[in-house]
Design goal:
The protein is α/β, with parallel strands linked by helices and 253 residues long. The chain has 8 helices and 7 strands. β5, α5 and β6 (181-188) form a beta-alpha-beta unit.
Length: 253
C-alpha cells in the first residue's frame, strides 16, 4: 500500500466543547487549519485582517470571526480578548517580505517581527492568562518554518523572525508547562498555498529546492493542518516544547 493511500480523512480527533482560536485564518494554511479543526467539532474563532476572507470562511464552516491587524500591538491584544474563553490556540498569522541581507530595511524587519513574533506573544499571553485564571490546561501551536533553522537566500527578516518563534515557543513551554498548557511549534517547508504556487511555479526556482527534499515534493496545507491538529489533541499529551519539521526530510540532509 502506498503511503499516499493513508488519506487525511482517516485522521480523527475530537475537539467537541473546545474553543479554538486561529490567527491568520483567512487564507492558506490558517484557513485549512480552521476548516480541519471545525470538522473535528471545535468551535473556531478566526482572526484575519481581511473581512472578505473571513466572510467566505464563515460560508464554509460555523465559526466566529474577528477582523484585526495583528501588526498593531493593541489591536492584537483586543482581538485576543474579544475571542473570549479559548482552550486551543494556533498562532498562524505571518508575513514574508523578501529582501537580500544588504537590502533589508528596518521597516521590513519591524513589520515582520510585529506580526510573526510580537503578535504571537501578545495573543498567547491573553489566552494563557485566561486558562490559568480558570484553572484549565490547554494547548498552543505556533506556526514556524524550516527557515528558523537554515539560511535561505533573500529571507533575511523572515529567517530571523522564525528563529525567534522557535525560541519563544521554548520559553512558553518552560513557563506554561506547570499550568498544564502545552506549547509546540510546527516548521513546514515550502507549502503550496495559492500564493506559494505562484512564487514557486518557476522550475528554475523550485527544482533546486525540491532536490534538497528527500521525499521529492513540497507540502500542502493539509500536511501542516494534520500535524497541528495532532499537537492540539490529547494524543499528544506528553509532547511539549518541540519544533516539529514538516519538511519531507529537508532538515535531515
Amino acid at each position: 500500500m502506498k503511503i499516499d493511500a493513508l488519506s487525511s480523512s482517516q485522521m480523527k480527533f475530537d475537539f467537541s466543547n473546545q474553543r479554538a482560536l486561529v490567527t491568520g485564518a483567512g487564507k492558506g494554511i490558517g484557513r485549512d487549519i480552521a476548516i480541519l479543526l471545525a470538522s473535528f467539532g471545535a468551535q473556531v474563532v478566526a482572526i484575519s485582517r481581511t473581512q472578505s476572507d473571513l466572510d467566505s470562511l464563515r460560508e464554509e464552516i460555523n465559526c466566529e470571526i474577528i477582523v484585526a491587524d495583528l501588526s498593531d500591538a493593541e489591536a492584537a491584544r483586543t482581538a485576543a480578548q474579544n475571542a473570549g474563553e479559548i482552550n486551543l490556540l494556533v498562532n498562524n498569522a505571518g508575513i514574508f517580505i523578501p529582501h537580500p541581507f544588504l537590502e533589508a530595511t528596518s521597516e521590513a524587519f519591524d513589520h515582520t517581527m510585529a506580526i510573526n513574533v510580537r503578535a504571537m506573544m501578545i495573543v498567547s499571553q491573553v489566552v494563557a492568562r485566561g486558562l490559568i485564571a480558570r484553572g484549565e490546561g490547554g494547548a498552543i501551536v505556533n506556526v514556524s518554518s524550516q527557515a528558523s533553522q537554515i539560511a535561505l537566500k533573500d529571507h533575511t527578516t523572515y529567517c530571523a523572525s522564525k528563529g525567534a518563534v522557535d525560541q519563544l515557543t521554548r520559553v512558553m513551554a518552560l513557563e506554561l508547562g506547570p499550568h498544564q498548557i502545552r506549547v509546540n511549534a510546527v516548521n513546514p517547508t515550502v507549502t503550496l498555498t495559492p500564493m506559494a504556487e505562484m512564487a514557486w511555479g518557476d522550475p528554475a526556482k523550485s527544482t533546486p529546492m525540491l532536490a534538497k527534499i528527500p521525499l521529492g515534493k513540497f507540502a500542502v496545507p493539509r500536511d501542516v493542518s494534520n500535524a497541528v491538529a495532532y499537537l492540539l489533541s490529547d494524543g499528544a499529551a506528553m509532547i511539549h516544547g518541540v519544533t516539529l519539521p514538516i519538511d519531507g526530510g529537508f532538515l535531515a540532509t
